[in-house]
Design a protein that fits this description.
The protein has a 7-stranded mixed sheet with strand order 3-2-4-5-7-6-12. A 5-stranded parallel sheet has the order 14-15-16-18-17, sandwiched between helices. By secondary structure, the protein is of the alpha/beta class. Helix content is about 35%, strand content about 20%. α3 packs parallel to α5, α16 crosses α21 and α17 packs parallel to α19. The longest helix is centred in the middle third of the chain and has 24 residues. The model has no long low-confidence stretch (mean pLDDT about 95). The chain has 22 helices and 22 strands. The two termini are about 50 Å apart.
C-alpha cells in the first residue's frame, strides 16, 4: 500500500516500522511534524522535551535500556544537543538511536544557515541523507540497522524541501526488534571517566574505518550510469534538482554522505570526462574529494548562500547564467511582510518598550517580530535563551544610569528551553537587570506546541504545570510579578517598577496566544471616521487589522479584530470604540 506523505510524516512512519519505543524532540521548523505524527502512534512514548539536549539525554537513557529511539530537532537544535552527542559517539548505544537533524537552507524560519553535515564528521558518526519521502522512511529503517550493527548513534539529515515536500511512500510492516528491554551495567562502556574514554576513543576510530568500508559497499551510495560526458555527485534534494536538470548525466547518488565512499567515487570519476559536485550550502563533499586528489568541479561561492533550485543547479552545471523562464513567486504574489497576529499580547509589551525607550535584548520566537517596523522594539536576537545573558552582560558594562534602560525579553517556551540557567546566572552574579517573560501558554511560532509551563503533554493530556513565577523566586529573583498586557497603563507602570528595582526583577506578562483561544469576542473595534484626526498613532501598533485609507484616516477590518483594545487606548482623540460583531 502507498500513501502520500511528507518527509517528516515518512520519517515517523519509518520509526513505527523500525519498532521505535521512545521519541523526543523540541519543536523547530522544519522538523516539528515528526513528533506530532509519532504522538498519534500506539506503542511509542513520544514527548516534547524542554530543549534538544534534554531530548537527546532522555533518548540516551531509553536506548541504553534497550529500546530503539528517535530524537528529532532542527539544525540549530543540534548545537544545543552537541554536548551529549559527542560523548554518545564514545559510549555507543544498546538499542538503536537515530537523530534527525532538519537543516534550513534559505533560512525560511531560522537565525542561521549552518550545514549540519559537519556534525557527522565532528562526532565521527554516520550520516544518511534522504532525497524524498520514500527514502526518508527507508533510510530511518536502515539507520537503525547501522546504529545497532556498528554501536553508534546515526544522524539522518533532511532539509526543508525534503521535510515538507510530499511524495508517494510504499508502506512496510512494523517489526519488533529482537532485543530485551533491560539495562545491563557496563561502566567501561557507559561511564566516560578519562580511563574509560581513552579506550572508547580508540573504538570510535576503529568504528569509523568500518563505516568507511560500509560506505563503499552499501546500496545507499549508488551509481546511475548515463552519459560519459558528465558525472554528478549529489545527495538529498540536490540530487533531485540535478536529475531534473541533467537527466542524461551519470550520477553517484550519496545516501550515506559521511563517511564518503572515496574509492567508489574515485572509480566513478574515471568513467566520466567531467565530474561535478552539486550540494547545498558548504562545499562539504567537494573539499573531501579534492583532499583525496580527485579533480572535481564545485559550485561558485555565490551558490553557498540559500537553497538550490533547478535553475541554480543548471547554472552550476553549465557554468552559465540561465534565463529565468518562470516568474518568481515575488513577481506574482503580493508582498506579505512577517507581522504579529491581530490581538497578539506581545504587541502591548513592545509598545511600552518603545515608549519608554528601553534597550531590549530579544530571543527566538514570535516576539522576534517586535524588531520590525513599526514596533522597532527589539535590539538583539542571537539564539534560544540568549536574551537573558545578553541583558546581564550589557548591564554589567554600562554606566549606572544607562543600565536601567536594559531589559531582556523572552517567551515562556524559550525560557523553559534555555533561559532558566541565564536567570540563575543573573541572580548569582548580582545582576541589576530586568527580564520580561512573555507567557502566551504555548510554543507559538512553530505551531502552538505544549511545553512544561502549559500543563499539557504532547498528546494534550493534563500534567503538572511549571510555575514560572515560583521558579523565578526559587532561583533567587527578588522581584517577581505577573501582569496582564491589554491594560496599557497597568502594563507600563509594571515595566517602570521592574526596571527601577535595584536587583534582578522578573515581570511575567501573561496572556494566552490568540491562536489558542477558541472563542471569538462578540464585539470588534471600530473607527469613527468623523473623530479620526489621521494622526497615525494606532498604525504604530503594527496591527494587521488596522489599515490606512487613501485620505489618511484608518479603518479596522472586523474579520481580523479580536478586541484587544490597544488601538482605542493609544488613540488620543477617542475615535475608536467597540461595536457588536456582525
Amino acid at each position: 500500500m502507498k500513501e502520500l506523505l511528507s518527509g517528516n510524516e515518512a520519517i515517523a512512519r519509518g520509526a513505527v516500522e523500525a519498532g521505535v519505543r521512545f521519541a523526543a524532540a523540541y519543536p523547530g521548523t522544519p522538523s516539528t511534524e515528526i513528533l506530532e505524527t509519532l504522538a498519534t502512534c500506539d506503542g511509542i512514548e513520544a514527548q516534547w522535551s524542554p530543549n534538544e539536549k534534554t531530548a537527546l539525554e532522555a533518548g540516551i537513557g531509553a536506548c541504553l535500556a534497550g529500546a530503539r529511539v528517535l530524537v528529532a530537532m532542527k539544525h540549530v537544535g543540534l548545537n544545543v544537543a552537541a554536548d551529549p552527542l559527542m560523548t554518545l559517539s564514545y559510549t555507543g548505544v544498546n538499542g538503536g538511536l537515530v537523530i534527525v537533524t532538519a537543516d534550513d537552507p534559505g533560512m525560511h524560519s531560522s537565525q542561521n544557515e549552518q550545514d549540519n553535515r559537519h556534525y557527522a564528521r565532528f562526532a565521527k558518526v554516520p550520516m544518511l541523507e534522504p532525497s524524498d519521502s520514500q527514502e526518508a522512511k527507508d533510510f530511518v529503517l536502515e539507520a537503525f540497522k547501522i546504529s545497532e550493527q556498528f554501536d553508534t548513534p546515526v544522524l539522518v539529515r533532511t532539509t526543508t524541501r525534503v521535510s515538507h515536500g510530499k511524495s508517494l511512500v510504499k508502506l512496510g510492516t512494523p517489526v519488533t526488534p529482537d532485543r530485551r528491554l533491560a539495562f545491563e551495567r557496563n561502566p567501561r562502556k557507559y561511564v566516560m571517566i578519562p580511563a574509560h574514554a581513552r579506550v572508547r576513543h580508540a573504538f570510535v576510530e576503529q568504528r569509523l574505518e568500518k563505516l568507511r568500508k560500509l560506505s563503499e559497499r552499501t546500496s545507499l551510495n549508488r551509481i546511475e550510469t548515463g552519459s560519459r560526458a558528465l558525472g554528478i555527485v549529489a545527495s538529498s534534494i540536490a540530487y533531485e534538482h540535478a536529475k531534473e536538470v541533467a537527466p542524461d548525466a551519470s550520477f553517484l547518488k550519496l545516501g550515506l554522505s559521511y563517511p564518503l565512499p572515496i574509492e567508489k567515487l574515485r572509480a566513478f570519476a574515471k568513467t566520466v570526462r567531467k565530474l561535478v559536485v552539486i550540494e547545498e550550502l558548504d562545499p562539504f563533499t567537494e573539499e573531501q574529494l579534492r583532499a583525496a586528489g580527485l579533480k572535481v568541479v564545485g559550485k561558485p561561492a555565490e551558490y553557498r548562500l540559500g537553497e538550490l533550485t533547478p535553475d541554480r543547479v543548471a547554472e552550476i552545471v553549465s557554468g552559465k547564467k540561465m534565463p529565468c523562464a518562470k516568474a518568481k513567486p515575488a513577481d506574482v504574489l503580493p508582498p506579505r511582510p512577517p507581522v504579529l497576529c491581530p490581538s497578539c499580547p506581545h504587541r502591548a509589551v513592545f509598545h511600552v518598550i518603545r515608549k519608554l525607550k528601553l534597550v531590549a535584548t530579544g530571543d527566538i520566537g514570535c516576539y522576534t517580530l517586535g524588531t520590525l517596523p513599526p514596533l522597532n522594539a527589539l535590539d538583539t536576537c542571537i539564539c534560544m535563551g540568549a536574551s537573558v545573558g545578553a541583558a546581564l552582560g550589557m548591564t554589567k558594562v554600562l554606566d549606572e544610569k544607562t543600565r536601567k534602560t536594559v531589559v531582556g525579553v523572552i517567551g515562556d517556551s524559550t525560557f523553559v528551553h534555555s533561559g532558566i540557567t541565564g536567570l540563575i546566572d543573573m541572580v548569582y552574579n548580582r545582576g541589576v537587570t530586568t527580564l520580561l517573560i512573555l507567557d502566551n501558554r504555548t510554543t507559538a511560532m512553530t505551531g502552538r506546541q505544549d511545553h512544561p509551563a502549559t500543563g499539557r503533554t504532547l498528546q494534550g493530556e493534563p500534567t503538572h504545570r511549571l510555575d514560572l513565577a515560583g521558579l523565578c523566586r526559587a532561583v533567587g529573583a527578588a522581584d517577581v510579578r505577573t501582569v496582564k498586557p491589554f491594560d496599557l497603563k497597568v502594563l507600563e507602570e509594571a515595566v517602570r517598577s521592574a526596571v527601577a528595582f535595584d536587583g534582578v526583577s522578573v515581570l511575567i506578562v501573561e496572556q494566552p496566544c490568540v491562536l489558542i483561544t477558541k472563542e471569538r469576542p462578540t464585539e470588534v473595534m471600530h473607527v469613527e471616521l468623523e473623530l479620526c484626526r489621521k494622526c497615525g498613532a494606532c498604525l504604530k501598533l503594527g496591527c494587521p487589522a488596522i489599515s490606512e485609507l487613501e485620505d489618511g484616516a484608518v479603518a479596522i477590518n472586523p474579520a481580523l479584530c479580536n478586541l484587544c483594545g490597544l488601538c482605542a487606548q493609544v488613540c488620543p482623540f477617542d475615535a475608536i470604540h467597540s461595536i457588536p460583531r456582525c
